[in-house]
TrEMBL record, chain A:
It comes from Oceanobacillus profundus. Residues 94-286 form the ABC transmembrane type-1 domain. The lineage of its organism: Bacteria, Bacillati, Bacillota, Bacilli, Bacillales. This is ABC transporter permease. InterPro entries: BP-dependent_transpt_permease, MetI-like, MetI-like_sf. Signal peptide: none annotated. Keywords: Cell membrane, Membrane, Transmembrane, Transmembrane helix, Transport. SUPFAM superfamilies: MetI-like.
TrEMBL record, chain B:
Residues 6-255 form the ABC transporter domain. Keywords: ATP-binding, Cell membrane, Membrane, Nucleotide-binding, Transport. This is ABC transporter ATP-binding protein. One of its GO terms (molecular function) is ATP hydrolysis activity. The lineage of its organism: Bacteria, Bacillati, Bacillota, Bacilli, Bacillales. It is a peripheral membrane protein. GO terms for biological process: peptide transport. The keyword Protein transport does not apply. NCBIfam families: oligo_HPY (TIGR01727).
UniProtKB/TrEMBL annotation, chain C:
InterPro entries: AAA+_ATPase, ABC_transp_ATP-bind, ABC_transporter-like_ATP-bd, ABC_transporter-like_CS, Oligopep_ABC_C, P-loop_NTPase. Pfam families: ABC_tran (PF00005), oligo_HPY (PF08352). Keywords: ATP-binding, Nucleotide-binding, Transport. Residues 4-253 form the ABC transporter domain. This is ABC transporter ATP-binding protein. GO terms for biological process: peptide transport; transmembrane transport. It comes from Oceanobacillus profundus.
Automatic annotation (TrEMBL), chain D:
NCBIfam families: Opp4B. The chain crosses the membrane at residues 9-30, 99-120, 132-155, 187-206, 241-267, 287-313. GO terms for biological process: transmembrane transport. It is found in: Cell membrane. GO terms for cellular component: plasma membrane. Gene3D superfamilies: MetI-like (1.10.3720.10). Its main location: membrane. This is ABC transporter permease.
Length: 300, 336, 310, 320, 597
């Protein structure tokens, strides 16, 4: 008995607290979310993979002799009013819309997380100032600024578009992270780190941030769902991408034309359904993740 | 017989974890008489609250087996409507955390008078208010008229706990369950609250189940004490007997780990309370924490034995129990 | 020269209000507290919730801004944040109340205990691991635990990890703010025993903050009792527990439940008496704001807050 | 209470000033101006230039801005170039329409969201709840404009139940009962289309709020009092869950503003959203700046309103 | 009036991929689906065929197609937007009417005589021409309109060369004179205007023929007129209908003007309501409107068989074109400066680019033949001046290649794109306006077509330009963006054919910045006194049309048609000019519009 005996195996359900495995388990348990995730991964692989072999220039090539073809052997999803292959546009459009969604989510997420973290961690005047900034951005007329941007910026690309959209979408996550950081900084482990001589910077990023990781993953996922459709509204108002950069929004907004809406479903409906499915799938995954982070709602 | 208020027989309460049910309260049998305080002690997670909630039938997703007879009425099979008549009237409960037990958006007065309203529908508004003020006075809240219109967050912890008590006693329950009523409070306030409960007991002639992990509180309040470990009652006895002549190794260890005068080294129980999921379902559940006692002395499926009148102990391992000096040595060695 | 000396410490928190959210008043969390610690001894700080115990402790280690007063550690002024040099910071460490929240759940034990080492000392990965394992052994945990996460430990074990972390820099003074109040009695015993053991081994000085007089009595050599940010009484353990002088101290001592059920009635009566005394002599011990007076020595070691005589 | 409002307004005021500067600069950055549209060889470019000078369109933005501010301070929002009428009159006309549209949308939103959220939250994880959450997911994913277009198609043209454009039938005298009914008829479909989408977030919020509240300790207290389930829900859970929704109310305004641009343009509904879009396209600056300013103020006031509502209904942060 | 016209047509008419790609003739058979028909504007009437018996009274609903609210500046002297003009047409009219060649006739509310030298016009207003309030329309009112428009405070867009051509107008406008010396009121109903320059343009639309009711506006400040309730809420005119009520921006209800000078209108009233372009077809089908102000030709093929309407059609006074930037605008002197060094300065390059595009196919495929290949810069809407015999430049990519080869534009580095004669890379930046639905594929098509002949044309900034920035960059303020090499746009031609406003040396709207002495000469000749003689003028303009084909500063791409569906219950409806039909003739056969089957 001459042994340190205190070290007991606490429990058999030893699981890594990384959060990731909890998230993963929740998804696997939730059939809908699992199917959604598989669907998403397949879509992404398909869309990004196949678009490597597609020639965007060829797809958006106008063909006067193939205008408004309904789906047939040559054009699986028919053609649009420029005689362009809708299926090809759908693939590239999905890729572009996904890229925009991901970019916007990442950019706005990064800004939001940084500001929220700093604001929540330091609190006080910094927090006050940051929150006023958030308030202010909330009331900015997003649409107008985007419209101005579209008209004055000559390089209207996926990148610049994502940047400008991100400028108006970081506030939500900043608020969330801030409130979590405010809670987190009251926890003793943060105080402990201070007494152990860690710098604020270190504490914020090495200590606090990992503890917010699951909530960040969840919100980013849900944001991604929202951001995929973000340019469709602008396309509808006529401020979307040029047609040479197909996107789901561009395809859907063809439905603006009553003739297209009524008689030529193949142009807009697949895109509309695809965006719906994508958003639902991402949302399903996000909701499952959300349940995972909220112990009380966890299934099983 | 007529003195018997509550009779619990072979009560098991199981929670669903994953695909299986695990018993947080396992085969508990006990009785409570009128005008008696039964203390229940045990470590965190030993199933004290689960037991209390079972008696009140407040679990929403637990499987309850066995019988709970309150005045010979079985609560386990009771319909929701009948249960609602009992709750808050014949039996009432004081909760552990006064900070969260009150509705933050409801006036104090309203929360107390709700309990009255539910069981005395014929009382007029005015009568109710009067009774609430009386109750607030009774639990020692100064300026009750003023507090009546306050909200929970405007009161201190001690005050809130008094409000919770006022709610519990509003209909003069025969059975009062107090689940760690003072854990969240300062010593001085704890003393006041305990005084209050004692006073109320005398006034109401109620049976009280007092759940706590503070042995001092039990020593001051209880007539009889039940010690719980891992969902089971391991020892029940009259309070003096238990404190002076504890039998179960767990009870002994508990008593020994309280800092008392002249004690240089406190006793330590090795290991930790096993979690619900990996409870040994067979054999003495405390066995793993006294490794120096030979396994053979533990019973296969221990039951409560009445060793003396009114003194019950589970598992006969207590007859072989001694505090392990070796283990203390081991700890020292570990350090050096 | 005292080991640690706190002189007339005041810590105020602003109350914001008014149209412009200006500071309209102050919470006097700590209001003129003075005491000193001897090396190798344990000093207990008791008082009811909100009396300023934690704030005092946190001010010493530098988690709270000091409004006025002085904190001297081995004769050096460490009152302001800036004056806390690296070495000084190493000398004072803290054990936190909640073993669950004081360890970062996302970090492995190795990272948790190595955090101070990484901040103050340069070690190779190997050295660092060795040091951490040594520390784990010191607190009675198996060295293999370094790759585990905090939630894989019980409360008592976690508290030991917290202590190991505090010990990593070989501090001289440890501030223990309610180190066991979140733990079960049996686990409490484990931690308290262990704290005493390492104190002897490493010649540590403790500032033990608790509202559990049982623990204070068990652990401390000197005790200070706080009430609403002020000291009401200070003395050795014996003085405080056997001859409490201030009415508040008496009340506090009387409120401790007795573990012996036979003493029940006696204890109850004693408490009643103290309560009566408290009610009748309240004005003798507290000023018009309900605050304690400043301390007067009644013996070498025993001081009580009483109105100035004469 | 008043102190609180005053303080908020003090914070708000600079926000509005900065907002106005930003939109003014932005308006100036846009290519073209109100006169760009007059591409007509019969119109003398010199005459246009003359007008431009007269309207001050050639001044640097800060001069125009200060002129504009001078006007605004005197309650004069300027003159719409396109409509040849004071912006304030124009906005007044449009604002009334948008106000009713928003109000009806809000009513629809809450009339749908509260029952759905309550059902979904109370009986969570039942098939009914799944159906409702399914709807919220789809509503979340479906672009507003597609929903609205389909609504017009189905209910406007296919069934012919509702008028599909404008705010009132032509030729009716304001003030008469027919006028009122006609107005209402014209509002129903756009308001409903928008509400179908705006409901979603409220339902989701309410649902999780109820699920959250269900687990609170004070609910156990209520049950322990002997309160039947119905009372537990009605008096405790719903009441506590609806409060945050009440506070949400003010923030809805920002959402309504964004949505109105789509809805009004699809339903040819002459409101602020349509006015905004037209004015941007036609560079009617005085209107653009005024509309955006009003949007901004509405959003700010909405946020303020939310804070105030919350501080009134929630005793924990009640401000005396 | 001419106006910048965004290419707002949409392409809906489909042609399925017929056999080979180069056939200019449409192929009606093959794998084509039902919508592949080709149409011709010649098959449409300008006047509605009447079926059934008209009833007395009834009201007509006129759909004003617009995605914005109408401005509500309901007076000819102040309006600026087309929607307002559409409304004005119903209740107010010009004093002079014109025939199908846009020459003023004498069967309007007023008649005119021209002096020998062509400088002095004498107008006589009919005796029974009265304002809606019963006051007579007087010469004084006509003068007043001129005085208001010429007033320095006037805030409408009308003041321009038509007015400065009146004697004494500039002095009056500058504030140097209190009256306009060139306008004399002879008596109540007679007005005399003296013009500085006598040109044939005067009788084709260069006279201001809209009086302003002085008894109403007389006491008003000029600056306040356009915003006054008399313009916005209770507008007045002397047309066949009177405004009864207005829902701002949405609808106008009108009742008949029993006192109308031509006689009592057949209809009891007219309702004009704004309808969104997206719902035009549905409104027509459901009888929500009887007719509309505009109907996009690309919607026609899908709805050609709508049972309850008849389509009226005519040739539109507009054409699309592609312009080449050949110089800049000199703001100082207000004239075009042509730069012989410009990127597009080589006429062969320009002509090759014309050869390279197949406008016939574009018209057939995108517009089902309702837009068609344009040959010259005077569209067939002006039959007197459009040179039918001139075939323009035909689609001939081989010729294009040859021209380029000869001009030295050859591919030297093997990237399939030609370099310029100096061997430098040639990238041509193409500005095209967004707005029209088909705009983008159309621009794309042109780029592809040019690529076929080896020219590297890139869309400016890689996308279409929004209306305002397009015109800004093309140079409507005189600041030409050097990044633009070529651009595509459209012009609406005024009722006066005179092209000086678009191609003159001093026209800021001469966006190509082309100028030459010969051009100046021809344009001047077109409006000289000689040109009063129709044949002379025709000769000059035929020569000019050919000259522009040779020089190619711009080349026309498509001519356009206008279609208007009208409910079958409507009688006597007409579109265009010179039909000898008037709005008071319009009648209906039943109370409610006929609904589509
Ligand atoms: N709703 C529940 N679902 C699953 N397990 C539960 C539930 N409630 C309690 N348990 C488990 O049942 C066991 C007993 O819990 P209980 O709350 O009764 O302990 P306790 O003795 O009251 O502890 P404490 O002193 O901490 O209050 C614990 O292991 C706990 O995790
Ligand atoms: N950051 C802060 N801002 C404002 N007030 C504070 C802050 N920290 C502490 N206080 C106040 O200071 C007083 C003293 O608090 P402190 O935490 O030191 O008390 P304590 O004696 O440790 O109590 P406990 O036993 O509850 O831990 C309390 O009234 C508390 O509300
Ligand atoms: Mg418990
Ligand atoms: Mg504390």
């Amino acid at each position: 008995m001459n042994k340190v005996n205190a070290d007991v195996q606490a429990s058999d359900q030893v699981r890594s607290p990384s959060g990731f495995s909890i998230l993963w388990r929740e998804i696997v348990r939730d059939k809908v979310a699992l199917i959604s995730l598989i669907l998403l991964i397949l879509t992404c692989m398909f869309v990004y993979g196949i678009s490597l072999f597609l020639d965007q220039g060829e797809i958006v090539k106008v063909d006067l002799f193939a205008i408004h073809e309904p789906p047939n052997d040559q054009f699986i999803l028919g053609t649009d009013y420029g005689g362009r292959d809708v299926f090809g546009q759908l693939i590239i459009g999905t890729r572009n819309s996904l890229s925009i969604g991901i970019l916007v989510t990442l950019i706005s997420g990064t800004v939001g997380i940084l500001l929220g973290l700093i604001s929540g961690y330091f609190g006080g005047h910094i927090d006050n100032a940051a929150m006023r900034l958030v308030d202010f951005f909330m009331v900015l007329p997003t649409l107008m600024i985007v419209i101005v941007f579209v008209t004055i910026v000559s390089d209207y690309s996926i990148w610049s578009f994502s940047l400008i959209m991100s400028a108006f979408l970081w506030m939500g996550i900043a608020r969330l992270i801030r409130s979590k950081a405010l809670q987190e900084r009251e926890l003793d482990y943060v105080q402990a780190s201070k007494t152990l001589g860690s710098s604020n910077f270190k504490i914020m990023f090495a200590q606090v941030l990992p503890n917010l990781s699951s909530i960040i993953i969840v919100t980013m996922t849900l944001n991604l769902a929202a951001n995929i459709g973000i340019e469709s509204g602008l396309s509808f108002l006529g401020f979307g991408f040029p047609e040479s950069t197909p996107s789901l929004g561009t395809l859907i907004s063809y439905a603006r034309n009553p003739q297209t809406l009524e008689f030529r479903w193949w142009i807009w409906l697949p895109a509309a359904i695809l965006i719906l499915i994508l958003m639902l799938a991402i949302n399903n995954v996000g909701q499952a993740l959300k349940r995972a982070t909220d112990a009380r709602q966890r299934r099983g | 017989m007529s003195n018997k208020l509550l009779e619990i027989k072979n009560l098991s309460t199981s929670f669903r974890i994953g695909d299986d049910y695990y018993a947080a309260v396992d085969d508990v049998t006990l009785t409570l008489n009128k005008n008696e305080v039964l203390g229940i002690v045990g470590e965190s997670g030993s199933g004290k609250s689960a037991l209390a909630f079972s008696i009140m039938r407040l679990h929403n997703r637990a499987k309850i087996e066995g019988s709970i007879l309150l005045n010979d009425q079985d609560i386990v099979d009771m319909s929701a409507a009948n249960l609602n008549k009992l709750r808050g009237d014949d039996m009432a409960m004081i909760f552990q955390d006064p900070l969260t037990a009150l509705n933050p958006l409801m006036e104090i007065g309203e929360q107390i008078s709700e309990a009255l309203l539910l069981h005395n529908p014929r009382m007029t508004q005015k009568q109710r208010k009067q009774r609430v003020i009386e109750l607030l006075n009774l639990v020692g809240i100064p300026r009750p008229e003023f507090v009546y219109e306050q909200f929970p967050h405007e009161l201190s912890g001690g005050m809130r706990q008094r409000v919770v008590i006022a709610i519990a006693i509003s209909n003069k329950p025969e059975l009062l369950i107090a689940d760690e009523p003072t854990t969240a409070l300062d010593v001085t306030i704890q003393a006041q609250i305990l005084d209050l409960i004692r006073k109320l007991k005398e006034e109401m002639n109620a049976g009280i189940i007092l759940i706590t992990h503070d042995l001092g509180v039990v020593a001051e309040m209880a007539d009889r004490v039940a010690v719980m470990y891992a969902g089971q009652i391991v020892e029940i006895a009259e309070v003096h007997t238990l404190f002076e002549n504890p039998l179960h190794p767990y009870t002994k260890s508990l008593l020994n780990s309280v800092p008392t005068e002249g004690q240089d080294k406190l006793h330590v129980i090795q290991g930790i309370v096993p979690s619900l999921k990996n409870l040994p379902r067979k054999g003495c559940r405390f066995a793993s924490r006294i490794p120096w006692i030979d396994a053979s002395v533990h019973e296969e499926n221990p039951v409560l034995h009445e060793v003396k009148p009114g003194h019950f102990v589970r598992c006969s391992c207590h007859t072989h129990f001694y505090f392990s000096e070796e283990s203390k040595e081991a700890e020292k060695n570990g350090i050096s | 020269m005292a080991f640690l000396e706190v002189k007339d410490l005041q810590i105020y928190f602003p109350i914001k209000g008014g149209v412009f959210n200006r500071t309209v008043g102050h919470i006097k969390a700590v209001d003129g507290v003075s005491f000193s610690l001897e090396q190798g001894k344990t000093y207990g700080l008791v008082g009811e919730s909100g009396s300023g115990k934690s704030t005092t402790g946190r001010a010493i280690i530098g988690l709270e801004n000091v409004t006025s007063g002085q904190i001297l550690f081995e004769g050096k002024d460490i009152t302001s944040m800036k004056s806390k040099t690296k070495d000084l910071r190493k000398d004072i460490q803290m054990i936190f109340q909640d073993p669950y929240s004081s360890l970062n759940p996302k970090k492995r034990v190795l990272d948790i205990i190595a955090e101070p080492l990484r901040n103050f000392e340069m070690h190779s990965k190997q050295e660092e691991k060795k040091k951490v394992q040594d520390l784990l052994e010191l607190v009675g945990l198996s060295p293999e635990s370094i790759l585990k996460y905090p939630h894989q430990f019980s409360g008592g074990q976690r508290q030991r990890i917290g202590v190991a972390r505090a010990l990593a820099l070989k501090p001289k003074l440890i501030i223990a703010d309610e180190p066991v109040s979140a733990l079960d009695v049996s686990v409490q015993a484990q931690v308290l025993n262990f704290m005493r053991e390492i104190q002897d081994q490493l010649n540590l000085t403790y500032l033990l903050i608790s509202h559990d007089l049982g623990i204070i009595k068990h652990m401390c050599d000197h005790i200070g009792i706080m009430y609403k940010g002020r000291y009401v009484e200070e003395g050795t353990k014996e003085e405080i527990f056997t001859k409490p002088h201030h009415i508040y101290s008496k009340r506090l001592v009387a409120a401790i439940p007795d573990i012996n059920p036979r003493m029940r009635e006696k204890q109850y009566r004693y408490r009643q008496e103290v309560q009566e005394e408290y009610n009748s002599s309240y004005n003798d011990y507290f000023d018009h704001e309900g605050l304690a007076y400043s301390l007067q020595s009644i013996s070498d070691t025993h001081k009580v807050a009483l109105p100035k005589r004469g | 209470m008043w102190k609180f409002i005053v303080r908020r307004l003090f914070v708000t005021f600079p926000q509005i000033v900065i907002l106005s500067v930003i939109i003014f600069i932005l308006a100036q950055m846009m290519p073209g101006d109100a006169l760009t549209g007059l591409i007509d060889p019969n119109i003398d470019p010199a005459a246009i230039e003359e007008q431009r000078e007269r309207l001050g369109l050639n001044n640097p933005w800060y001069v125009q801005y200060s002129d504009w501010v001078k006007g605004v301070v005197q309650g004069d929002l300027g003159q719409s170039f396109r409509y040849k009428m004071p912006v304030s009159d124009l906005i007044e006309q449009r604002m009334i329409n948008t106000f009713w549209l928003s109000l009806l949308t809000l009513i629809f939103t809450y009339a749908m969201a509260i029952p759905l959220g309550i059902i979904s939250g109370r009986w969570n994880d039942t098939w009914l709840d799944r159906a409702i959450t399914g709807y919220t997911y789809i509503g979340f994913a479906a672009p507003l404009f597609i929903t609205a277009l389909l609504m017009v198609w189905v209910f406007g043209f296919h069934f012919g139940w509702f008028p599909t454009g404008g705010s009132v039938a032509p030729g009716l005298t304001p003030g008469t009962f027919e006028y009122f009914i006609s107005k209402l008829q014209h509002l129903l479909l756009p308001a409903f289309s928008m509400a179908v989408i705006t409901t979603v977030s409220t339902v989701q919020y309410l649902r999780s709020e109820i699920i959250d509240t269900k687990q609170k300790d004070f609910i156990v207290t209520a049950r322990a009092k002997g309160a039947p389930e119905s009372r537990v829900y009605n008096r405790h859970i719903f009441r506590n869950s609806l409060l945050p929704i009440a506070a949400f109310f003010g923030y809805e305004i920002s959402g309504l503003i964004g949505g109105s641009i789509f809805i009004e343009s699809i339903f040819s509904f002459p409101g602020m959203g349509q006015l905004f879009l037209d004015s941007v396209l036609l560079r009617d600056y005085s209107v653009v700046t005024s509309v955006v300013l009003i949007f901004g103020i509405a959003a700010i006031l909405g946020a303020l309103l939310s804070d105030i509502i919350l501080s009134i209904v929630d005793p924990r942060i009640r401000i005396k | 009036a001419c106006s910048g016209d965004s290419d707002d047509g949409q392409s809906e008419g489909t042609d399925s991929g017929s056999d080979s790609g180069d056939s200019a003739e449409a192929d009606d058979e093959g794998e084509s689906d039902s919508e592949s028909e080709l149409y011709s504007i010649d098959d449409f009437n300008q006047i509605k065929t009447n079926e059934g018996e008209a009833i007395d009274g009834g009201t007509l609903t006129f759909g004003l197609v617009s995605d914005t609210a109408f401005e509500g500046t309901l007076n000819w002297n102040f309006y600026s937007g087309d929607p307002d003009a559409q409304i004005l047409d119903w209740f107010d009219e010009a004093l002079l009417t014109w025939d199908e060649n846009y020459v003023y006739t004498n069967d309007g509310a007023a008649t005119y005589e021209i002096s020998e030298d062509g400088h002095v016009f004498t107008f006589t207003i009919g005796d029974n021409v009265n304002w809606h309030d019963g006051e007579p329309v007087t010469a004084e009112d006509w003068l007043f309109a001129h005085e208001v428009i010429g007033h320095p405070d006037y805030d409408g867009p009308r003041y321009g060369s038509d007015f400065t051509n009146i004697e004494g107008m500039e002095e009056y406008h500058a504030g140097e004179a209190d009256t306009i010396s060139g306008i004399k009121v002879i008596d109540d109903k007679t007005l005399e205007i003296t013009y500085i320059q006598a040109t044939p343009s005067l009788v084709t639309g260069s006279i201001w023929t809209y009086p302003l009711a002085k008894h109403i506006f007389g006491d008003m400040e000029v600056a306040e007129m356009s915003a006054s309730p008399e313009v916005r809420e209770n507008p007045i005119g002397f047309g066949p209908f009177k405004v009864e009520s207005i829902v701002p921006g949405e609808s106008v209800t009108m009742v008949k003007n029993e006192d109308y000078w031509r006689g009592e209108p057949n209809l009891d009233g007219v309702t004009v309501k704004v309808i969104n372009p997206n719902v035009v077809v549905q409104e027509l089908e459901s009888g929500g409107v009887d007719t509309v102000s505009a109907f996009q030709v690309d919607q026609y093929p899908d709805n050609a068989d709508m049972s309850n309407v008849e389509y009226l059609g005519r040739i539109d006074r507009s054409y699309s074109y592609i312009g080449f930037k050949l110089g800049t605008w000199d703001k100082e002197n207000g004239e075009v400066v042509t730069d012989p060094e410009a990127k597009m300065a080589d006429v062969n390059l320009r002509k090759a680019m014309w050869h390279a595009v197949d406008n016939t196919t574009v018209g057939e495929r995108f517009y089902n033949g309702l837009r068609w290949n344009a040959t010259t810069l005077i569209p067939p809407s002006h039959p007197e001046f459009h040179d039918d015999s001139n075939a323009g430049v035909s689609y001939d990519p081989e010729a294009a290649k040859q021209l380029l080869d000869e001009a030295g534009y050859v591919d030297v580095d093997g990237d399939n794109f030609r370099e310029n004669p100096d061997g430098e890379e040639l990238v041509i930046n193409f500005a095209s306006m967004s707005g029209g639905e088909v705009a983008e594929p159309l621009a794309q098509y042109y780029i592809q077509a040019w690529e076929q002949v080896g020219l590297n044309v890139q869309l400016l900034d890689g996308r279409l330009q929004e209306f305002n920035s397009f015109y800004d960059r093309v140079g409507q303020n005189g600041d030409d963006d050097p990044a633009v090499d070529i651009y595509s746009a459209a012009w609406g031609v005024g009722i006066d054919v005179d092209p000086r406003g678009l191609y003159g040396r001093d026209a800021i709207f001469n966006f190509s910045r082309y100028s030459s002495d010969k051009n100046d000469e021809l344009l001047a000749a077109g409006v000289s006194e000689d040109a009063f003689e129709l044949e002379n003028r025709q000769k000059v303009y035929n020569e000019w049309q050919q000259f522009m084909i040779d020089e190619v500063p711009v080349f026309p791409t498509l001519y356009r048609s206008e279609l208007v569906p009208v409910n079958n219950r409507v009688h006597n409806y007409y579109i265009g000019d010179g039909t000898n039909m008037y709005r008071y003739d319009i009648a209906v056969t039943q109370e409610e519009p006929i609904v589509a089957e």
